[in-house]
Protein 1
Amino acid sequence: MSSPADLADFPVVITLPVLWGDQDAFGHVNNTVPIRWFESARIAYIETPEIAELLKREKVGPILAAIACNYRRQITYPDTVSIGARVTRLGGASLTMVHKVWSEQQRAIVADGESTIVIFDYAAQRPTRISDPLRTAMAKLEGGRLER
Amino acid sequence: MSSPADLADFPVVITLPVLWGDQDAFGHVNNTVPIRWFESARIAYIETPEIAELLKREKVGPILAAIACNYRRQITYPDTVSIGARVTRLGGASLTMVHKVWSEQQRAIVADGESTIVIFDYAAQRPTRISDPLRTAMAKLEGGRLER
Amino acid sequence: MSSPADLADFPVVITLPVLWGDQDAFGHVNNTVPIRWFESARIAYIETPEIAELLKREKVGPILAAIACNYRRQITYPDTVSIGARVTRLGGASLTMVHKVWSEQQRAIVADGESTIVIFDYAAQRPTRISDPLRTAMAKLEGGRLER
Amino acid sequence: MSSPADLADFPVVITLPVLWGDQDAFGHVNNTVPIRWFESARIAYIETPEIAELLKREKVGPILAAIACNYRRQITYPDTVSIGARVTRLGGASLTMVHKVWSEQQRAIVADGESTIVIFDYAAQRPTRISDPLRTAMAKLEGGRLER
């Protein structure tokens, strides 16, 4: 499925149905659901082939340090949403990933936010500097908009 | 149940068990779960008798505009957590509620964050100024630390 | 998406992605997830145009009385599943809907089960006899395999 | 917390709050929630000291093969529920665990059901006969009502 124009800047976009069970007692999508969508987009990003291969080879992995979400519009069932993920900042051991949720019914961004991710060395059991190959792979995925 | 010292400043504290099913494939509590805990604490706050009565009388209600969460430590099963909610800012039509999650196992704050809440007039179908009685009720609950 | 042969008998089939977050600490899809999939298929069935129209006109609705699920194989991430729903029994006020979950990765039925649904009259606040038009609509959807 | 009389026969009883977020768009507790409660009670049962010790020593574990739930009454927020678990049948490699959910608000059983559990040998990667020590431990927990 092609991405809506609002997600044109996002190298990774996933598309998910809104489920009836995503609604809460207010009759719209519960606030935890976009957080789950962000998670799915985050995982899709780090599962892109080159990044997945590097994380595996380096025996490091992402740990979620913080999340933020703006609920811009009420989301209702039925609908289909597209969720974009892109990396906008590479720090020493952490990075910022931005998310936008686009609703097919509303033809608009209905939520956005960001994840702060720490790269963790499982052997050493502590955060570790993001390697140069990982920086290069993410910069390539982001089409040069990302400062390595 | 008495609150831990770290939550002494919070007028509303709820205590919940960590469920086995709160864990994800990493074997610790999934990132959506503290967001659900924040929701439960938020609801407990607005269900305190005076605030619940005012919201009902004024035919207004809270809508979640934004959420942020810092995952400070991995949370594991089994555990029992206490979640505090307090209002730290009253704007025109919006307010900020701060949350902290205290783990009984770790004897520490394991997550914190905040909710931005808009007061919504259901009849007019739009945000509305927080009424003076609501401001007074929240200031009273916060023991005078809150600017009305 | 065309249905797999194992779901050929099902008039309603929905297709959903398995999410990373559907996994639990055992590293496979949690047992509550197929129950959520059954719900989504059940809703899709009663939202087929003719049935939705009749339920609305008669001011009646389905209430879930019982559910059963057989977990035939472990379901893992990533995968895409197709869930079928068909009505196999029409009682006085209740009906039985059968579900099967087909995994694209495993090319096999990974779970099946059934829902017992009671038709509820909201005005009278009690179960009500399934109307003849509803029986006819369901029998039509089921291609004559269903005893009216 | 003492168990209600309706759960007197259950050797394991857990007590959980109904969360606001457990509700769905119908304004009552969603059908997946009692399934999660059953899971929590099931885990509590197999975590009783003697059984947990035996499972660990024998390097075997429980796998859920089937679940069934009867939704006897609508469950609403707020409420506190107690969930009982007891083993009623020991087969060769499988056992049946029965669950009842008692509501404090309604002073009644609001849901019941059962889990079919298979004992799995992780080394051999297949179901295995329930050992005599496990049979004895469960029979002891069930106070002799259970055929070893």
Note: The radius of gyration of chain B is 16 Å.
Protein 2
Amino acid sequence: MADRYMNLDTLRFILFEVLEGDKLNQYERFADYDRASVDILIDSVKAFADKELYPYFKEMDEKPAHFTDGQVLVHPQIKEIIAKGAELGLIGSGFEYEIGGMQLPTVYNYALVHILDCANNHATGYGGLTTGAANLIRVYGSDELKEKYIPKMIAGEWGGTMALTEPQAGSSLSDLTTEATPRDDGSYDISGQKIFISGGDHQFCDNFIHLTLARIKGAPAGTKGISLFVVPKKRIADDGSLQSNDVVTAADFPKMGQKGYCTTHLIYGENGNCQGWMVGDPNQGLKYMFRMMNEARISVGCGAASMATAAYYASLQYAKERPQGRKINRKGVKDVSSDPVLIIEHPDVRRMLLLQKSIVEGALSLILEASKLSDLHTVAEGTDSEEAHLLLELLTPIVKSYPAEMGKVSIDNGLQILGGYGFTEDFILQQYYRDIRITSLYEGTTGIQALDLLGRKVPMQNGAAMQLFAREVSKTIEEAKKLELRESASELTHRMEQVTETTGKLLQYAAAGEYDHFLADATVYLDFFSTFVVGWQWLKMACRAKEALLSGDGAFSTDFYESKLHTMRFYYKYELSKMTSLAEVLVDEQSLTVDSFRAEILG
Amino acid sequence: MADRYMNLDTLRFILFEVLEGDKLNQYERFADYDRASVDILIDSVKAFADKELYPYFKEMDEKPAHFTDGQVLVHPQIKEIIAKGAELGLIGSGFEYEIGGMQLPTVYNYALVHILDCANNHATGYGGLTTGAANLIRVYGSDELKEKYIPKMIAGEWGGTMALTEPQAGSSLSDLTTEATPRDDGSYDISGQKIFISGGDHQFCDNFIHLTLARIKGAPAGTKGISLFVVPKKRIADDGSLQSNDVVTAADFPKMGQKGYCTTHLIYGENGNCQGWMVGDPNQGLKYMFRMMNEARISVGCGAASMATAAYYASLQYAKERPQGRKINRKGVKDVSSDPVLIIEHPDVRRMLLLQKSIVEGALSLILEASKLSDLHTVAEGTDSEEAHLLLELLTPIVKSYPAEMGKVSIDNGLQILGGYGFTEDFILQQYYRDIRITSLYEGTTGIQALDLLGRKVPMQNGAAMQLFAREVSKTIEEAKKLELRESASELTHRMEQVTETTGKLLQYAAAGEYDHFLADATVYLDFFSTFVVGWQWLKMACRAKEALLSGDGAFSTDFYESKLHTMRFYYKYELSKMTSLAEVLVDEQSLTVDSFRAEILG
């Protein structure tokens, strides 16, 4: 295990200097969150993560969650983590004071979740999903549901889940078949199966509250006939005691990574005795779920960026401690009589380190920006709120998929720095490598995110989100020009033109009704656009760093700010440049996966 | 487990139509290998792989090699595999008839190894490394060593290893410290430690013959003072009995993948009683080892390409069987009243399948081409032999690293096709995903291959290898033009110009003595050049496919040949295009990992 798993300075730099998060306290809901109080919160969560999460990270992989005798058993430390996390207010931290929350801005919530995810990504989901489930009840549920469930959930006594996926349907929610039959008492009989239910059952919560998508008998086909139900593992009797609600855990899926986090298979109503209570109105379930989806997707992106961050610091420590090989002299030879150098001296190792740094910090900046947009959407008014939402909608598929996809690449490079040791279980890199692979699949695969971006977000409201985005980018470019970052500003301008041209070209297919062509390379477009978005984030960070260097009164060291500028330049040279080739692919008119494709081609 | 793990037609197409391997029988050494006899060999090895290797693939992961009570235990099936593999002649298959070999051309050897690696990459190394070790004795050893060791090794009774790596030195062989002290009887006392010794010990061989690099007391520093020794686990007494040779297995490294293949830690001479016998002359050890390195590197590339091949077929089968989602109609909507389609109908899934196919078949073609060059180097005469060797030298780092690096990407796409199921241990994709990660590390990491390519192979003999390569590429381009593949030919011409220009620009740094700059982005150059080399392989395959379609008398179906053309076009659109961006990076003059780099930048 490495000495360090994240960087508090970088986190604070993004929160306070790049995003000016402390200005959020101008809104009444967030009035208590000045910089000092957030700093205390960050420090206390870091101390919690150091003590209760990080030391158990490897062990949770080695002693995975497992299903035995009809029961899911998870690592004993999960008990402490849930209890102390709840005590710190981390479950439902954004909820109103009156229902037990802290009214914490989302941007700070994700800053805290980032710390926890960096320390131990196997553990954070238990509280995170409980928050998500409770939040659905908070926003759409009746007062009765709220009173019955939320307090126990944010106390960590009861776990919560989001139960969407079914074996036959996967991401295709329109095909879900879990059935809800109205009962006389206003509740419903629930029957069906759900798979891949994270945190769905374990020995440390008294009850599990499954926010379950199901179809009321006779409801319309497809996604328009889906309703949302609270289905507890145990019903609450009138005397407050818990009794079985016929929700049976049939299995826990063994996985290649994130093994400490259970992934359950649930069967509802096998004995005709499973009761559910509807949340909100009938047939609105998917809409409710999707209003929450932005946050669920930020959360997956945050997990991925955090795993890659921790892996970065582990590989950096190795590079600073491991002597091996020698520098090449001016004659192109190595002097074998000299001592070996630390591997951080090798340009290729530096390249792999800078690549990681540029990915993980760029991703973190984007995640926190999106979180702040979510806050502004909630607390700002009028156009400010609308624009925040519009931009958040556009960025969400990228917030989810960039950290997942490029986080894989980042950790791959981290592992590579360790050479053969990286492949052995003696070192931690291989665990991050396995863990992160889930994040391209959770909450909509990368392909689904790509369709969301190009098929829905880019064209929505006649391209309003894209126009707004372009204005935001222009602001950053103008600022960079004033701060002597002229070269990077002009590079980003050029890349923005590439985005505009390429997007315009693709939209012509949509205009012509050729949707297959339009969307065939959506994943390539996602890669292309994401690379740009993170380039924009890097220019934002560079502006603040440059400003601090020019004024000389930044909160961090000169080295710190220079490191941001250097990493930005690295990203622009090695990563932003990928856009040229991706644009070539996107504007190429050959259609190899649509019209001219036949299955026989695959041999 | 999937029904199919490789494609015999593609293998035969490359062997006989692309490489015209059957013409090798014009050389006396290979006179027995006409097409019919090779076909029989292929079929018998496929039957062996079907029966003895593939069914145990998942189990070897679940019941890994492990160290217990001072002993390495491997899966029981390893016993069968070694015995039957030896019986089939697969250990030392290329050796002369008189010493028990089959004089099999290398190109066919790797065709067979490909089948085995596709079926079960955990099992093939045992025989493969035994062949490699025996081959060092065969080529450089005394008659006494040959007689004593080779027969038992190719019979599978004794295992062989290549013992290079030491804990403190890693890839930096100049720092190895294992010591050899001359004894009166002409042998040496050996003392030291070796790590990561694949196949180094297990319960199914009577003895292990470690081809060990060590330094004779007083030898020059660095790589010039390294000698090669045969160090058996057990010495052979005069009466033929085996007695302990003080080679102790200290551990087996638990790994994230390829778990059935043991990776041992050996301690030599802890009790001052370990004897070794020198192979060839003193201080020539590294030279000997490196003459064998081309084959060892082909072998790693073959392993990687094969894992990715098997993963491809597993994901293809899933895509053909799994219904999910619907096609978008001309109005951009999905008709939820229709049945779900098989996921192979989705363009994004097709893209992921074609990407895999283009990588794995391109890699296989390259590996077999390199193997054939190795044969020509051995059996041809004069310029033919020299040119084959020169081209092989240039291609070897790519043969090793392209399948490893792009194989990872390929399997990542395969896993993605399965959605959430891909991450679970119920499906095999996650095993391939973990297994392949070792191949970027084995036998010189990708960074080492990159330095070899740009620092050594490109400039060698004043660029002679590059010039020869360019001529070979031109031949393919000319042929493609004649075969109505004008567009692809002109694309490859354009890309060859990119290679020439970019390489020329980089060589200016070397000419100016700026070696750090010259080599700083060697890994990017490797990616750039490899992408081109595989593009060339695809045009070669396309030429043969087109020719067969035009003549109508090919050995395979029209679909088969069309699939090659389609995949070539896919590679050119989606993969070859990456070169544009990589060239941008390579010619960019900012030096971010050399002069302007300071460790503080990494935060």
Note: Residues 447-590 of chain B form one domain.
